[in-house]
Design a protein that fits this description.
CATH topology of the largest domain: D-Amino Acid Oxidase, Chain A, domain 2
Radius of gyration: 23 Å
Structural class: alpha+beta
Largest sheet: 10 strands, mixed
Number of strands: 19
Shape: globular
Strand content: 15-25%
Oligomer: single chain
Helix content: 25-40%
Number of domains: 3
Distance between the termini: 47 Å
């Protein structure tokens, strides 16, 4: 590594680690980003995919966190419109006064038990939403409203159980994985323009030898052992930031940095369905309801599917082993069928599921939902290299977390903060169409200009936003072959392999092309993807069949998704 600028080692290439890399580069700090697995392969990929202010945080008195989250929601809607879009959520309720005393006791800190919360009533929900709107100060989104369940504009829920629905505005990011890669693209641009070094190492580990770090390939966990895996790199970082989320304690142990136990994450599982009746009932809106035990349940439209989540269960062991259990799936199906009995979801309607471990701090709270969702930077004064750990964090606050963490790290380097990301548009956001009518016209124009079917243009646009223009224009230099059972041009896949740190086949399937959301994912598709990786030098030809087999096994075991053919 170059000694001309201080280099910070960031461990963990999730949304927080990547946002921090971008933030440090803006102030002229070189960055080495290392992850034992793939980019955004931890909690980032297994979230509820909401960009929200945290309505529930009001019950625990975390008003500053709600303000920060709402401010970031507004900012992301403006700076990343290609990824973050408004979502109207409806809260059904069946009484007026429910939950007032229970929430009051919790707010005052008198109740930390695991007793179920009584169903929240209309008055409490309205009060919370009025405060929520006040904190948001966002004129671009409609304020909350109340609807009778029998009204035409309400979502069809159980009329015997519910009498009203309170609607409010939040936002959703369909593909946080694609958002992360856009941030990394921006980070590369910043590094190129500023003369900083920016290096990304997926499937690598950082080994500390005194004050020197050796970045080594993780061959044991790399099925493909692709030709694009680089040899070990040695350098002396000016600081280390441990942004490995639920792995924070394990990372500190591997680095031999003394620290108390910092994390106690909970497992959140989600399931996805293509059920047409549920999709029609939502009509582009989401439900935010309560399970019988008082836990929040989200039912939201997402990328052609409907997402149902989430659970909140204390988890012990490696976060990489978290998988949705049959009990959790049954819990979520039961909750939805209780809210919307006419839908009648069964396990046969579950297209796939996933589970991740939230990076929550260790606390004495018995109730998982009561554990704070705040974030902070923990300093490790006994480390031989200046070292910090990111505690907490969520999708919504990734940018503000990165800004505050960068300020601390840069101050320790005795450097000034020269720029921040507070007004920096995510690549592709500046030219994004302002409304659906403009978007439809732009897609039709692009289809006519490139000669691709409109379905192909839509498929590429959903992943890349305005970057789809250049990707499809470039595709004209090659055959317009489509990836089997999809509308994605193979030439676009080639570009992804070349520029987005693809090492394994599941990198493409799960986190680059978002193929889990395809109604049909076939063996033919996986084999063609492996073939493209071989052609681009990202996978040895001799390993292609083994890679396909390993990916099929992983998808069926971890996501419960059947592979066609």
């Amino acid at each position: 590594m170059s000694e001309s600028r201080p280099s910070v080692l960031i461990l963990g290439a999730g949304i927080n680690g990547c946002a921090l890399a971008r933030e440090l580069l803006l102030s002229g700090v070189s960055v080495v980003l290392v992850d034992n697995a793939d980019i955004c392969s931890g909690a980032t990929a297994y979230a509820s995919r909401l960009i929200h202010g945290g309505l529930r945080y009001l019950e625990y008195g975390e008003f500053d966190l709600v303000r920060e989250s709402l401010a970031e929601r507004t900012r992301l809607l403006r700076l990343a419109p290609q990824f973050v879009r408004p979502l109207r959520l409806y809260i059904p309720t069946g009484n007026r006064l429910g939950g007032l005393m229970s929430v009051a006791r919790r707010f005052l800190g008198w109740d930390k038990s695991e007793r179920p919360t009584p169903p929240r009533g209309l008055w409490m929900i309205r009060s919370g939403l009025a405060m929520y709107d006040s904190y948001a100060r966002d004129q671009s989104l409609p304020r909350h409203s109340t609807h009778r369940v029998r009204a035409a504009d309400a979502i069809a829920v159980d009329r015997a159980r519910y009498r009203w629905e309170c609607a409010y505005s939040d936002a959703q990011v369909e593909y946080p994985e694609r958002f992360v890669f856009a941030m990394l693209e921006d980070a590369r641009t910043i590094a190129r323009e500023s003369g900083c070094e920016f290096r990304v190492f997926a499937y690598h580990r950082a080994v500390r030898k005194g004050t020197t770090i050796e970045v080594q390939p993780c061959h044991a966990s790399d099925v493909s052992q692709a030709s694009n895996v680089v040899p070990a790199v040695h350098f002396t970082p000016a600081a280390i930031v441990n942004a490995t989320g639920a792995w924070v304690d394990l990372t500190l142990e591997a680095l031999q940095i003394p620290a108390p136990t910092l994390m106690a994450g909970t497992k959140g599982s989600h399931l996805f369905t293509f059920h047409e009746g549920l999709r029609r009932a939502l009509a582009g809106r989401g439900l935010y309801a309560e399970a019988p035990d008082g836990r929040p349940v989200f039912v939201t439209p997402l990328a052609g599917t409907t997402l149902i989540g989430t659970t909140d269960i204390p988890f012990h062991g490696s976060p990489a082993d978290a998988v949705a259990t049959p009990e959790e799936i049954d819990y979520l199906l039961t909750a939805v069928n209780r809210i919307m009995p006419d839908i009648g979801l069964t396990t046969a309607d579950v297209a796939f599921h996933y589970s991740g471990v939230r990076p929550l701090p260790r606390t004495d709270d018995a109730r998982p939902a009561a554990v704070t969702r705040r974030h902070w930077l923990e300093h490790h004064p006994d480390a031989p290299i200046p070292c910090y750990s990111v505690i907490g964090g969520k999708l919504t606050t990734c940018r503000s977390l990165a800004e505050s963490a960068a300020q601390t790290v840069i101050a320790g380097l005795r450097m000034p903060v020269t720029r921040t990301s507070s007004d920096r548009v995510i690549p592709g956001g500046a030219e994004y169409p302002a409304n659906d009518t403009t978007l439809t016209g732009q897609l039709n124009t692009l289809a006519a200009r490139t000669g691709f079917a409109l379905e192909s243009v839509r498929a590429v646009w959903s992943l890349f936003g305005t970057r789809a223009n250049s990707l499809l224009e470039l595709s004209q230099e090659r055959t317009a072959e489509l990836l089997p059972d999809t509308w994605l041009p193979c030439s676009v896949v080639r570009s992804v392999i070349r520029h987005e740190w693809v090492t394994r086949l599941d990198d493409l399937v799960e986190r680059r092309l978002m193929l889990l959301f395809q109604p049909r994912l076939s063996t033919a598709c996986l084999r063609r993807l492996a073939g493209l990786m071989v052609e681009e030098g990202a996978l040895p030809g001799s390993a292609a069949e083994a890679e396909v087999a390993a990916t099929i096994e992983r998808i069926e075991r971890r996501f419960g998704k059947s592979i066609a053919g």
